[in-house]
Amino acid sequence: MMRVLFASAEVAPFSKTGGLADVAGALPAALAALGHEVLVVTPWYGNLGGGAVPYWIGDVQAPFAGGFEPVGVGTLERSGVKYAFVGNERFARERLYGYSDDVQRFALFSRSLPQVAERVGFRPDVVHVNDWHTGYVPMLLAHGWHLPSGFPGLPSVFTVHNAQYQGVADLEETLWWLRLPAALRFSYLDHFGSANAMQAGVGFATAVSTVSPTYASELTRPEYGFGLDGTFRSLSGKLVGILNGIDTYTWDPSADHLLPRPYGPASLDAKGASRTALLERFGVDDGGPVLGVVSRFAEQKGIDLVIGAAQRLIASGWRLVLLGTGDPHTEAGAMALAADFPDAVGVHIGFDEELAHLVYAGADALAVPSRFEPCGLSQMIAMRYGTLPIVRATGGLLDTVAHDRTGFVFEHATADGFAWGASEALAAYGDRQRWRSMMLEAMSQDFSWGRSAARYAALYRSLT
Asked: Cβ distance 189 to 139 under 8 Å?
């Protein structure tokens, strides 16, 4: 049994902006199910979700900015996992991120972790931190002053969920906030004269993981490393890729109360009820196979490639339903497409949990045309629902989808590239026996968190 201190800037269901929260919500619970003791530490934001009402147990003094700063500690326990919430006025804001002092805010959060763990009586065997918000922690464990007994030199795992965001700040200010020795100016903290929290995490952690094997390789290349590819290349010996999982209880078509009729591999025909409901919801006719989108509308996600290929897709027989929000230009393009082809294209701008379940279940195929995708969850959810994904050959998409077996993989991040992938899917759809066989193969894949948690537990044991 291992004692794991797990820290993340967001943890579902308490706080969420993206996939990091899903991982931080699911992985600790899967580790606990394997018999490990886990304390998750996360900020105490102004509006916590999931019905969370932490029990306040008092303040601790975090070494910060040349002195000490009090932070409040609240606790609760769910599904065998202990949670500690770090309270401070810097976190009691409307949004999680997007403020000019974000790096300073998460420097305080990182600096408080050992004190918070000590306050709740948790002495870890290993510390697992995630993305730039906690990137300073491995450096603090190695070189920080004012650490509680047992924390100096603790082994650490730093997980890169998305290298695009790195937490860049002034070098001298960062050292002052963290109360670290001046000698660390000339360390992994320094990236061309600025403090880089992502590089600090990568450099000082005992082991570095990322969320798929292919993304681990991609990080060492300039087009994916966002300026840190050289750092990743130099540390490749301690960099491993471990696929994320999905919540197989929430995403289970055989027990999904948000669907008109649950279904499974032995009752695939019942999937048609979701398909009918989806077409009715969007006002789209049943003129061909249904291609779904459930995504943020961001450049990374490549939804513009679907829009760029849409007229060709419609002409070949596809019907499109798009659910998402984000980039205003992409939103406008999707809405214009729906206005031009109201019988063939349906669009919902925003996020709707119930509708997302209906798209995953009711579509025949799901478009996941990401320019880069560290892991991706939507393609795994789609496969569990027997909806075949059309994905670009990048990151976790390449690791989880087998072309012409559990989905379709295209190479080039262009509208032409996506159109090719859709044409491959359309050809397979024309052979109903072949399509059904692929659906069953996709549904048989194991994307549960138990498998991923076992790999993380093995990584922790290798460090202690």
From this structure: yes
| Mean pLDDT, the chain, whole residue set | 96
Q: What is the pLDDT of residues 42-52, one digit of tens each?
A: 999 999 999 99
Q: What percent of the chain has pLDDT over 90?
A: 95
CA 54 to each of CA 37, 89, 94, 121, 420: distance values in angstroms, whole numbers, following the listed order: 19, 16, 19, 17, 51
Please choose, from the candidates 128, 112, 111, 130, the residue with its C-alpha nearest in 3D space to the C-alpha of residue 120: 112
Q: Pairing between strand 365-368 and 345-349?
A: unpaired
pLDDT recorded at residue 423: 98
Q: For residue 338, which amino acid is it? A: A
| 238-288 pLDDT tens trace | 999 999 999 898 899 999 999 999 999 999 999 999 999 999 999 999 999
| Backbone φ and ψ of 27, nearest 5° | -65, -45
Across the strands, what pairs with 325? 296
Going from N- to C-terminal start, the domains of the chain cover 3-245+450-463, 265-446
Sheet holding 190-191, edge to edge: 168-170, 194-196, 190-191
Give me the helices (H) in 286-384, please: 303-316, 328-340, 353-362, 378-384
Three-state secondary structure readout of 426-461: HHHHCCHHHHHHHHHHHHCCCCEHHHHHHHHHHHHH
SS3 call for 319: strand
In three-state secondary structure terms, 393 is coil
Cβ proximity of 134 and 110 under 8 Å: yes
Cis peptide leading into 213, omega within 30 of 0? no
- Structural Rg of the chain based on CA atoms: 23
Checking if the pLDDT of 208 tops 90, the result is: yes
Domain 3-245+450-463 and domain 265-446 have a common topology: yes
Statement: 265-446 belongs to CATH 3.40.50.2000 = yes
Taking the C-alpha atoms of residue 261 and residue 203, their distance in angstroms, rounded to an integer, is: 50
3 state SS of 348: strand
Residue 236 pLDDT greater than 90, yes or no:
no
pLDDT of 162 reads 94
Beta strands 194-196 and 126-130 are unpaired
- State residue 377's pLDDT score: 92
Q: Where are the beta strands (DSSP E) in 218-351?
A: 239-241, 290-297, 319-326, 345-349
The architecture in CATH of the region 3-245+450-463 reads 3-Layer(aba) Sandwich (3.40)
CA–CA dist 27, 59 (Å, integer): 28
- CB-side neighbour CA atoms (13 Å) of 122: 25
Kind plus residue range of the DSSP H or E element containing 42: strand 37-43
Rounded Cα distance between 295 and 291, Å, is: 13
Distance CA 9, CA 44 (A): 10
